[in-house]
Design goal:
By secondary structure, the chain is α+β, with helices and mostly antiparallel strands. Among the domains are: 161 residues, no CATH class; 105 residues, Pdz3 Domain (Roll), CATH 2.30.42; 195 residues, PDZ domain (Pdz3 Domain), CATH 2.30.42.10. Helix content is 38%, strand content 26%. The chain contains 18 helices and 36 strands. The protein has a five-stranded antiparallel β-sheet with strand order 14-13-15-16-34. A five-stranded antiparallel β-sheet has the order 28-32-31-29-30, covered by helices on one side. Helix 3 packs parallel to helix 16 and helix 15 packs antiparallel against helix 16. The relative contact order is 0.11.
């Protein structure tokens, strides 16, 4: 008799009651503390609870599959747990009622009487897994030799394969049922409508245009209200996971036409993910997001005069109805400011005036009023180009100086370290980039390059990785005068990333018409290269100019003509001539100086009936399962980097973010995770369900189980490799979270 058995035998009923009471008190204290915290932080508590319940539900479905098939297969199930140990609650049906154990000591065998149920149902404190304990079954070794005919090892192999496979099957079925319910009720997802097409991308060269509606991808589609359609996720996934030289077949509706396209996705120049893209970008509406947090909402109104539910109706007094019309209108405005006509909910206008924002709104309802706002415009250092990340912006070949648009705040890990230094070690905090560079600093010299363009800045930054780099700036002093300042920075890459950065966002100094350099431009005739770096443009065709917007407008107006550009360098003045090209005299993309939080262009995907919902649900699971298989295949082929994967921490983080959008999207994301779990668990690796199936197939072929001397090392090596992979991915997830600003 073992020590635990002796202890259990000598323990009196009074001792058991006392032990249970003690455990119950501990449980209640923890529960009360959690409730108090939840009352003080209701929004966070609800989102955390949603994440825990969501993952618990996925695990419950998986483990229930093992459990129910084991029961049907005549296998004795000793425990069924949702969550991993330590066990918080153990529940068992006895002959005379139910027995509840709080924080039970699992090393002490529970005394069972005749008629008591064989299975204890448990809830573990760690909501990251679960298990089914079958008699004689082991996850990390050979099945235990038990003479009971109902033990796992004594049941036929086909029954054991069914039991092992049941978890992933139930995950797939559970995900399908979840999607069915969502499609039956209707869920808003990004519509398969092209919002933008990146210049020189596969989609651009194929002739796809903004506003095109994609209705079929690789033969797959839904039918909503009698019309063929797909969601944009299907479009994105098809391109992302396509193999090299393997086209993605698309059918597009353009007006009354249906056009067929075969897109071969490519890797964009400069993209560090190693993934393929088609150049298609999802559409967004002209209405502001309903889901802005209240703090962000208040900031948006105070800084940019924007409210939730605002709809853009006009740009510089010209009506715009579609997002691509809005983008096209902005791209032609070479002005420092633009006037936007806004349709605003009267309830939001009143809330903005009073500062008393309500938590949620429905922009589809309520009276509206019209307001006009003025927004600053900007032009980026580069023009978006799929094949050339250094497609530099220029104004008739002339490039403005670079300035600091914004500086990165210290990351989470930096804030943690500084907190420890200041509060614990009583030392000064480590300086950050925000202590060195300031917004609106103008770059005069970086390293050994005077007035660098964006490409040169990137090259210098990468060349000085983990090395000090000198920068000469022009900075406005307290008197409003520009003075020269020399600083030193050290470009670094965050852990888990290959991207080297200083920690600031560069922009063009558009307010001051100072030339940094000129570029060789095909078809351009003139001697603008004679304008010295640092010279200020003072006039175009004898018309004074104050900034680069006015220079751009003058050059645009004179496309195909010869113009005179007057400049001043120090005390010297000069003039050069320039024959402006007919095509794209100004190579630039004007846009708003800040990004509005537009709602995605969505469509309500609602099935006409239960059978159609069933088909849509299984089709969506099939898409996710196929996508996961392709991802794993490309991962082993080294076409997808490990950095593209997420582990438990990353998934939980993403789930937490999704819960802030809507419950529908939370359930949709959990359905995606459940589909992924079905694929991952079927991998033929030891300790995973797929590995157990392989071992059972070997047992069927050889007529006997794999020998313990072979099995045990294989299982432990497999477990070690799997844990190493999980830890590596989790490490990258944590680093990404900590190094986020």
């Amino acid at each position: 008799m073992t020590d635990s058995e002796k202890k259990a035998k000598t323990q009196t009923p009074a001792d058991e009651v006392q032990n249970d009471r003690r455990q119950l008190v501990i449980f209640l204290i923890i529960l009360v503390m959690a409730i108090i915290w939840g009352i003080k932080n209701p929004d966070t508590a609800i989102r955390i609870a949603a994440v825990l319940l969501g993952f618990g539900g996925i695990v419950m479905i998986h483990e229930f599959g093992h459990f129910i098939v084991a029961k049907l297969g005549g296998i004795k199930v000793e425990a069924f747990s949702i969550g991993m140990p330590p066990v918080a609650i153990g529940l068992r049906k006895l002959k005379k009622g139910w027995r509840v154990r709080f924080f039970p000591n699992m090393s002490e065998p529970e005394q069972l009487g005749e008629g008591d149920h064989e299975t204890e149902y448990q809830i573990g404190l760690l909501p990251i897994g679960g298990f089914v304990k079958m008699l004689g079954q082991s996850d990390t070794g050979a099945a235990e030799a038990v003479h009971d005919p109902r033990s796992y090892a004594n049941r036929p192999i086909w029954i054991r394969i069914c039991v092992v496979s049941a978890g992933v099957v139930f995950n797939a079925i559970g995900a399908a049922i979840l999607f069915m319910a969502l499609y039956m009720n209707g869920i808003d997802l990004p519509a398969g409508i092209v919002g933008d097409v990146i210049n020189n991308s596969p989609a651009y060269h194929a002739g796809i245009k903004p506003g095109d509606e994609i209705i079929e991808v690789n033969g797959e589609s839904f039918t909503i209200d009698g019309k063929q359609c797909v969601d944009f996720e299907t479009v994105f996934q098809a391109s992302l996971l396509s193999a090299a030289d393997n086209p993605t077949n698309m059918v597009i509706r353009r007006g009354d036409e249906e056009l067929k396209f075969d897109l071969i996705s490519e890797k964009p120049d400069g993209d560090l993910t190693g993934l393929r893209f088609s150049g298609l970008e999802k559409g967004y509406g002209l209405e502001m997001s309903r889901y802005m947090p209240l703090k962000e909402l208040d900031k948006m109104y105070k800084e940019f005069n924007i409210c939730r539910g605002d709809r853009i109706k006009s740009v510089n007094e010209k009506a715009v109805k579609e997002p691509w019309d809005y983008e096209k209108a902005l791209s032609k405005i070479f002005q420092a400011e633009v006037a936007l006509g806004i349709s605003r909910l009267e309830s939001e206008a009143a809330a903005a005036e009073s500062g008393q924002w309500i938590k949620t709104i429905d922009p589809a309802e309520g009276s509206r009023t019209t307001v006009k706002i003025t927004c600053p415009m900007t032009i980026g250092p580069t023009v978006e180009n799929f094949l050339n990340r250094y497609d530099l912006t220029h104004f008739g070949s002339l490039v403005p100086r670079l300035k600091v648009a914004g500086v990165s705040e210290p990351t989470r890990i930096a804030r943690i370290i500084n907190g420890v230094r200041e509060k614990v070690l009583k030392k000064d905090k480590m300086p950050s980039v925000a202590d060195i560079l300031k917004p609106d600093d103008i770059l005069i010299k970086v390293g050994d390059v005077d007035y660098p363009n964006f490409k040169q800045l990137r090259e210098l930054t990468e060349a000085h990785k983990d090395k000090k780099m000198e920068i000469t700036l022009l900075r406005e002093n307290e008197k409003g005068e520009l003075e020269t300042v020399n600083v030193t920075v050290t470009p670094k890459s965050n852990p888990g990333s290959d991207y080297v950065a200083i920690g600031f966002a560069p922009a063009l100094d558009l307010e001051n018409p100072v030339v940094a350099q000129s570029l060789p431009v095909e078809g351009l005739i003139g001697d603008v290269d004679k304008i010295p770096a640092g010279a200020m443009i003072i006039a175009v065709n004898d018309q004074p100019v104050q900034n680069w917007f006015e220079i751009a407008a003058a050059i645009q107006t004179n496309a195909g003509k010869e113009i005179a550009i007057a400049y001043k360098a120090g005390e010297q003045t000069g003039q050069v001539s320039l024959t402006v090209p007919e095509f794209e005299p100004v190579h630039a993309e004007p846009t708003l100086a800040y990004s509005f939080p537009f709602e995605d262009l969505t469509m309500n995907y609602k099935a006409a009936g239960p059978f159609e919902a069933m088909g849509m649900g299984f089709k969506k699971v099939g898409q996710f399962v196929t996508g996961n298989i392709k991802t794993l295949k490309r991962l082993f082929q080294k076409e997808v980097p490990m950095s593209a994967l997420s582990g438990p921490v990353g998934i939980i983080s993403m789930t937490y973010k999704v819960t802030g959008i809507s419950w529908d999207h939370t359930l949709y994301f959990l359905g995606l995770i459940s589909s992924c779990l079905a694929v991952m668990n079927l991998l033929p690796l030891p300790v995973l369900d797929g590995g157990h199936i392989v071992l059972l197939i070997i047992e069927k072929i050889t007529g006997k189980p794999v020998h313990e001397k072979i099995l045990a090392p294989v299982m432990y090596i497999g477990l070690a490799l799997l844990l190493t992979l999980i830890l590596f991915i989790t490490y990258r997830d944590i680093i990404r979270l900590l190094w986020a600003s």
